[in-house]
Amino acid sequence: MRVLFLNGKPIISIYQSGRLHLVVALCSAVVSNQAVLTAQTLREQRTLSLDSRYFINGYSNKAIGRFGIEMIHLGGLPASLIFDPDSASDDDEKTFLFYNARQLSYIGEGLILLVGSTFFSSPFQLSFHEFGHGTRFAAVGLKPSYGHGLPAYAPREAKTYDSFFSYYVSSFFHFGGGYTFWDEALFRWPLRAEEFGEWHAVVSMGGVNNSMFFTEIIEDELYRDGGHLGFASSYVLGKLSAKLYDYSDSGVNDIDRIISHFQIRGVDIDRKKIQRASITSFFLSSITYQFAHQFIRLFMGESTRFRPWEFYGVQLPNTAFYMTRDGLSYKVRSGYRYESWRFPIAVEHVFEGKKRTEVSVGAEKQLEKLSVAVETIIGKELELELELSYRFNDWVRFTSGLALYDANNLHGERLIPSLQYGSKYHDVYIRASLAY
User: Fold this and answer.
1) Average pLDDT over residues 351-361
2) pLDDT digits (tens, 9 = 90+) for 304-328
3) How many whole angstroms separate alpha carbon 409 and alpha carbon 411?
4) How far apart are CA 413 and CA 342, in angstroms?
5) Do residues 401 and 385 make contact, with C-beta atoms less than 8 angstroms apart?
6) d(CA 407, CA 302)
7) Distance between CA 114 and CA 367 in Å, rounded?
8) Looking at the domain assignment, is residue 391 inside a domain?
9) Which of 403, 422, 407 is nearest to 199 (CA)?
C-alpha cells in the first residue's frame, strides 16, 4: 500500500494485483481409513440474499464476506446447468483417452466450477481487500471511497465509488490495483489524538486482514453446507495475501507502514516475519490439502464437490494469520460435529509483539426448518454473536442475528463496524435469502 496525502488527507493506495505471481505445488492427501477420516461429496446450497447490513451502517465485513460466498456459488451455476455426471454412463467404455462418459462429465463440471467461480471471485478479492481498509476508516467516522489504479497517476476525473457493490461491479472491467481514501466525516472523530497512529496502522492492516478473514468465511461455508473446487483461488490468495503483496514501493506500501508502526513501539517485526507467517498459515490449514486433493480428483474424473475431512467428528484445524495493533497473531480454528450439532472453537495468540490470547467457542444446531448458532469470544472483553435462520420453504430462508463487538479484542479490532459510541457496538440484522 502507498500512503499519499491530498489536501492534508491520507489517501491509501494498495493491492497491485497485476504483479502477483503464484505457483502452487499440489500434493495428494492420502486417506487410509475412510471410516475414520471422511469427506462427503454433495451439492452445495446456492442463495442470493438481501441483508440489512448492506444499508444500515453499510460497513460490515461479515455481511459483505457472505456476499462473496454467494458470488462464488453464482459462478458455479453454469456447471450445474451444463453437466449432470450422475446421469452419465459409468461403464468401462473409454470415450476419450482414459475416461468414460461420467468421468468426462465430472472433469467438465470441475473445470467450469473453477473458471466460473474464479471469474466472479477475482474482482471480489480486490474489492473486499479495499473494503477492509474502508471499514476501518468508517469505524472511526471517516467515509471511505474506492478507486482503481494508483491515485498518484489517476486523472482528476477518475471515477471513484462510495458503495462496495458499485466498486465490485466496476472491478470486472479494471485490471491491476485499487486504492481507498476518505473525503468526508461520518461522525465526530471518537479517538484521542494519541490513538490516531495506532488506528492508522489498523487501517493499513485492514486490506490483508480482510483477505485472510475471507478464508475463515470460506471454511465456515464448507463445514456447514459444503462447497467445490471453485473456492480454491480465493482461499489460496487469502492465505498467502501477505506473502504475495507487492513490496516494490519500498517504505510507502501497506506492509512497510505497518512495520514502521511496530518499530516505533520497539517491536522487532520485518517483512520476512510477516511473509513467513502468511506461508505458515497456508501450510498449517487442512483445507489447503483438501483443495490439493480435489485437484487430483478432478484429473481422475471424480467429483470436486465436497465437505471437509473430519476425524471422528473432529474438524481438522485451519490456521489464519493476522496483523494487530499488538503484533502478529495466529488463529487456529477447529470444531466437533455430533449428529445435528456442531461446536466450533478457535484460539488466537499474538506470537510476535505484546503477547495476548483470545478464545472463541460456539454451538450450532440444525433442526428441520430452524438452525441456531451462537459464538462467544473471550479476550480482554466479551463478544457474542447469535443467529437464527428459518427455512420458510425450499426457496426462501429468513435469518436474524445479534452481534456484540468490542474493539479492545483482536476480533473486534478487525470487524467492529463503528466506534461512534465507544469501544462497544451492538449490531442487529435481518437477511432474506432466495435459494436456486
Assistant:
1) 97
2) 999 999 999 999 999 999 999 999 9
3) 5
4) 26
5) yes
6) 46
7) 32
8) no
9) 407
CA distances for 338 relative to 10, 288, 434, angstroms: 50, 24, 28
Concatenated DSSP letters of 105-119: HHHHHHHHHHHHHHH
Record the cell numbers describing residue 436, joined without a space: 436456486
Could you tell me which residues are beta bridge partners of residue 51?
Answer: 431
Beta bridge partners of residue 142, listed in sequence order: 185
Query: How confident is the model at residue 13, as a pLDDT?
Result: 40
Q: Can you state the angle between helices 271-283 and 254-264, rounded to 10 degrees?
A: 110
Using the predicted structure, report yes or no on whether residue 193 has a pLDDT greater than 50.
yes
Query: Of the candidates 428, 424, 422, which has an alpha carbon nearest to the alpha carbon of residue 412?
Result: 424
Query: In terms of residues, how long is the chain?
Result: 436
Domain assignment present for residue 320? The answer is no
Residue 345's DSSP bridge partners are 334, 361
pLDDT at 164: 98
Distance CA 283, CA 411 (A): 23
- pLDDT of 17: 42
User: Total domain count for the chain?
Assistant: 1
| pLDDT the model gives residue 5 | 35
| Rounded Cα gap, residues 294 and 114, in angstroms | 11
- Pairwise CA distance, residues 277 & 280, whole Å: 5
Helix (H) or strand (E) holding 358: strand 357-366
**Which pLDDT score, from 0 to 100, does residue 155 have?**
53
Structural domain includes residue 400: no
Query: Rounded mean pLDDT of 175-196?
Result: 87
Rounded Cα distance, 335 and 310, in Å:
9
Residues 374, 342: Cα–Cα separation, whole Å: 11
* 163 part of a folded domain: yes
- Helices 61-75, 196-225: axis angle to 10 degrees equals 40
410 touches 356 (CB < 8 A)? yes
Range of the domain at 40: 2-313
Torsion angles phi and psi, residue 337, rounded to 5: -115, 130
